[in-house]
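Hey,

The postdoc asked me to send both predictions to you directly instead of through the lab channel. I've kept everything plain text so nothing gets mangled by the mail client. Protein one:
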Amino acid sequence: MDMDLGTRISELRREKGMTQEQLAKLVGISAPAVSKWETGSSCPDITLLCPLARALDTNVDTLLQFEEELSQERLDEYLNEILEKARTGNREEAEAMLQKQLHTYPSSSALKYNATTVLNFFLMIFPMETSEKKKAWQMQKKQLFEEVRISGNPQYWQGAVSGLAAAAIQEEDFEEAELLLKELPENSTESTLLWMQLYLKKKEPEKALEVTQHRLYVLVRQMLMCLTTLMNGGMITDNEKVLEICEVYHRLEEIFGVGGGVSEGFFVEAYRRMDRPEDALKSLIKMVEASISPMQEPNPLLFSPTIHIEEGQSVTTLEMKQMLLNSILTDDFFAGFLEREELQEAVEKLKQDIRKESAGAKE
């Protein structure tokens, strides 16, 4: 009898909290017969598989472990047992345990994907193994990644493709690496790092720099968007904390040269909530100055030569400038400041800029 089937019957019976006698009664056989199944001395007659599966509250496929997917809990148990065995130096036993699970659950993408991590662990802690054994582990890793890739399992597919691409880069199979990388989402950090490694391996540092700077620029913009959401999304109601986030946003603008002074608008809103009109006014004037200024190049140390800003490009659109002007002139919060010389100068500059841009748009 297949020892795995006997173990499976025993596991399912115990999970149900049944004794061998109770299972025997449900199936219509003797308790010693169940004992023989579980110890591997004999196997159930094929006619008993359906009633046996019903008694264990499962189906025949699961009972026979056909197309079974491991639960995360059981998978973690198996992996921890294998890794612990490897840590104690029992390489052969640990490897045998891994291979047994892969044989027992041939359709489990989760097991296959995690098995590649176990094989990496073997390579790391058994450096004195023969080159043949290390090569075999590397080959099995690729095979497992390929099987997961073919399965299309959404949870593990991207990681499997990345693993195959990394292997192809390491082996200098650049054509295969590029084909695999084109399967991955373009705007992901993982694919960017792999493209960078590929270009460096091909001795094309300019291209490696380009993909890295472009990804960094995207990440910075996304980070600023997340900070904007934190400030305006109603998630944080403590005004002091919102003001601190404004400071973080402002510092990031200065460090990366990205954002165009938008942070001043956040300061205006934060100071309004805190009823600090003088501070709100100072930030408002800075906001006006930023809105009529040309967009600055991002920090050249980090983004040159990849990221360029079109010469003369404005920080804000004409529509946004008109909205800003209307807000200043009609908002009751600033009504008492309209006679202040510094605000009048800022408003006049904003009006002039709007007129100039409007005239240019008509030409």
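Protein two:
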Amino acid sequence: RCFPVCRQDHLSVVNEDPIDLQFNHSGYLFLASEAVAHIMEENYNTQRFAGAKVSLMSPTQVKERFPWINTENVALASYGLENEGWFDPWTLLNAFKRKAISMGVIQCCGEVTGFSHTTNVLINPDGEEVHLKRIKSVKVQMPNSMEFQPVECAIVVNAAGAFSGKLAEMLGIGLGPKDSMAGLPVPVEPRKRYVYVVHCPNGPGLDTPFLIDYSGVYIRREGLGGNYITGVSPEETEEPDTSNLEVDHQFFEDKVWPKLANRAPVFENLKVTSAWAGFYDYNTFDQNGIIGNHPLITNMYFATGFSGHGLQHSPAVGRGVAELILDGEFKILDLSNFSFRRILVQEPMLERNIV
């Protein structure tokens, strides 16, 4: 769920216009079937304990509050009462970038093609060799050029999103013997997701929450002109080709629209006006973020694998990684559960009822 986490005094730059993140206040409405209603109740109790203003609703209460929703086969619903909504991700990204540059960060654009590193060989208690690497420089190819630029560094933060696993492979991670630590890959890969913008002039308009059906279909309002954003994640066996970012419009016809129209018949009459595709940095292990350094690369820190929730997590994750680098430990929030350890010992940290 999105909420206004970044105050203007954190993002403002002297002599520059203030940032408008275009935050839209609107509650998230999750619908649960009988099979998963108990999970919703558990999540509700956790949220209330943490101070979130959420409410459980019966199907009758949902129908009274949102009469355009078909509550057939809905057993329970969870609705956010305050501090929820959505904002423009591109604006937030550029606000972070603008603030960083104002504080002395030098921005360079290019593609990482390799690393220069040193290797120390240690013997573990089992008598096996362990190769610890330390990055000395990053090889970067300039855009639209054959020029390569080595960038010397003391620390590298791997926030390469869907391609962070490939970046780690350049240092041999995942390429070692099968049952060794070096043979365990960073479990992050690109997964393509489609987002469709539809126009429905007779839609519910301002009365639209961010609706998430238990089928996986979601929809929210986009502006005030009868436009909405909708989509659904494909089944594991139907993951689309990631070699391009082309949109599959048949996917909307077959997988999105029927479920959407069933849950909200008002959307039986609509028109797709635009669409786009993007990559999730999908953590195949447990769909949760990976934060911290890799045990075999002493000066590479990871912030990846958020599986579609990276924007929401980014302020806290950025703060946490900075604390690890500067202080050697987390200070404000203990994010150690997101370290590589859970992957090494094969203890996934799964979250339930997520979008």
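Summary for protein two, as requested: Helices lie at 8-11, 37-49, 59-65, 89-102, 164-169, 249-263, 310-327, 341-344.

Thanks,
C.
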